[in-house]
Amino acid sequence: MRRRDFLKAVGVVALAVGETAKRDKLPEKGERKETKEHMLRIKVVKTKETDFGGDDPKDIKAVLQSVGNTILEHCPHTNLDPIEVKYQEGEPITFFKRGADGQIKVALSAGGKYWSQYALQFAHEFAHILISHSHGHDSQTETENVQLKENLCYTASIFVLRRMAETWATHPPFPNWKEYAPHLREYADNLLSDPKYAVAKQLLPIFEQHPERWEHITFLNMTPFERRVIESRHFIDRIAKTIREQPPAPK
Ligand SMILES: [Zn+2]
Fold it and tell me: How far is CA 244 from CA 12, 78, 224, in A?
């Protein structure tokens, strides 16, 4: 490596470290980080016209986008691959196996204009996605702490419904959806009295006071080694990004 190139490389690394330090600061409560890396890519696919009770995929996508962002805004370091959502009767599910294009696959059974039901189901599955598919990493097994993970997913549903009740009261995806805000809250209150959500009720204050903890669940299914690999990959990505954004060297 020539000396000039070497100095340039050192400069690039120093810049990258600076950027890392900046990015490692977690956002303030409620602060929205809208960068390209945090964009949530959701595709709602209908195989039959009657799927989702005949609802418009555009509307469903708006609800799901709102659900995902309610959690993802607290995870500034988490990258998610595109998510494909289909309709399927029965229990909602996040599939272990990805689709042919590497998309994360989810099936929901909500239908009609019951946005609270979509929110409940997708928030639960979104927590599964964070646990099993974030950072481009896929969990191979689901044998450890299964009950804990399930309870974290239940917690996500209540957390999201309560937060969305607040955001939709002033900033709903569509202006005429403001009226749904009280229903979201009502739905959350009902869950809190359901025995199935007893542990989630205990976990809820932990996440409401420190929503940045949602990012911690993205490492729950990883070994310490896998986690270090992901972290180094993020670091390399940041260096590559810094190099791409460098102004061309003067001739
Ligand atoms: Zn579950």
Answer: 10, 21, 30
